[in-house]
């Protein structure tokens, strides 16, 4: 919208829709109406079941010139199935999840992966460069969802190890503000530490990503491992920890609240002054670009 694109929006939360309409967007009314009205429909939904329901509602209105762009983190087999239905109806489909956090999505600096035919990718790239900074074409539809589930698994593993590191440093009498800086300048740092550790230490623990979404993603990763006969040791433990977190704090609790399991077990307070309540992307917003993978030759 900030780049001058006509935007129609639809969400079950009418307040979200009203906010965008007040800023110049058009109420999309329903999934079916969106597909009837727009050339490109983007979905970003919380579960494969939700994606199925929305695509089913849109499908009668799919035809030549229509593109469905799926930005949900979802099951690769399911996105292939839905994509094939869109293509069979004469439209085009793109498997297009994102990575980098809501604060970078707000500024248009999010990373975007795209799985589709190259001709379709070239068609949607001008829109993607308005929405994200680095855009990577990965190949056929479904490949991207497989990779995206893996990246979210790694992020969750990072979150849990950071929580343990902070708890142990607190128990050892280390200043947690100094501990944060020490990790950030070390080989042990990560994007997760440099973002979510700040929200843990400030006490806000609101990264705008809930435990049920984490559980969905790590469950999908474990499913991939099971389907390919790879026996994992760490993944089942991560699933157990997040399952316990949901039981304690609720499925819609913010994922950063997983630190509270360790606070309750140890009696420690994992807090430090000087950290933000919300994440703000300090990188200037710029037009995105395609990332070209280095050749193997």
The CATH architecture designation of the largest domain is 3-Layer(aba) Sandwich
Number of helical segments with 4 or more residues? 12
The low-confidence parts are none
N-C termini distance: 41 Å
Output mean pLDDT.
Answer: 92
Helix content: 40-55%
Radius of gyration: 20 Å
Identify the strand order in the major beta sheet. 6-7-8-9
* Total strands: 9
* SSE sequence, one letter per element: EHEHEHEHEEHEHEHHHHHHE
Structural class: alpha/beta
CATH topology of the largest domain: Rossmann fold
Largest sheet: 4 strands, mixed
CATH superfamily of the largest domain: NAD(P)-binding Rossmann-like Domain
Beta-strand content: 5-15%
Number of structural units classed as domains: 2
Q: Which CATH first-tier class of the largest domain would you pick?
A: Alpha Beta
Write down the overall geometry: globular
């Amino acid at each position: 919208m900030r780049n001058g694109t006509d935007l129609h929006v639809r969400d079950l939360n009418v307040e979200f829709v009203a906010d965008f309409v007040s800023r110049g967007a058009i109420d999309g009314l329903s999934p079916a109406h969106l597909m009837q009205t727009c050339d490109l429909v983007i979905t970003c939904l919380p579960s494969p079941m939700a994606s199925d329901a929305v695509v089913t509602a849109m499908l009668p209105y799919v035809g030549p010139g229509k593109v469905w762009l799926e930005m949900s983190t979802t099951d690769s087999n399911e996105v292939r199935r839905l994509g094939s239905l869109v293509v069979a109806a004469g439209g085009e489909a793109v498997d297009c999840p994102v990575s980098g956090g809501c604060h970078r999505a707000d500024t248009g600096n999010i990373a975007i992966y795209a799985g589709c035919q190259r001709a379709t990718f070239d068609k949607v790239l001008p829109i993607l460069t308005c929405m994200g900074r680095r855009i990577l074409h990965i190949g056929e539809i479904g490949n991207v969802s497989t990779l995206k589930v893996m990246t979210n698994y790694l992020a969750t593993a990072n979150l849990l190890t950071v929580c343990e590191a902070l708890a142990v440093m607190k128990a050892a009498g280390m200043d947690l503000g100094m501990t944060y800086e020490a990790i950030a300048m070390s080989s042990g740092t990560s994007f997760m530490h440099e973002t979510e550790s700040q929200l843990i230490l400030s006490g806000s623990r609101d990264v705008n990503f809930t435990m049920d979404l984490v559980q969905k993603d790590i469950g999908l990763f474990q499913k991939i491992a099971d389907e390919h006969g790879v026996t994992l040791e760490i993944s089942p433990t991560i699933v157990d920890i997040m399952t316990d977190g949901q039981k304690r704090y609720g499925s819609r609790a913010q994922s950063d609240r997983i630190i509270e399991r360790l606070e309750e077990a140890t009696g420690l307070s994992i807090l430090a002054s000087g950290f933000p309540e919300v994440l703000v992307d300090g990188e200037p917003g710029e037009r995105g670009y395609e990332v070209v993978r280095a050749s193997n030759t």
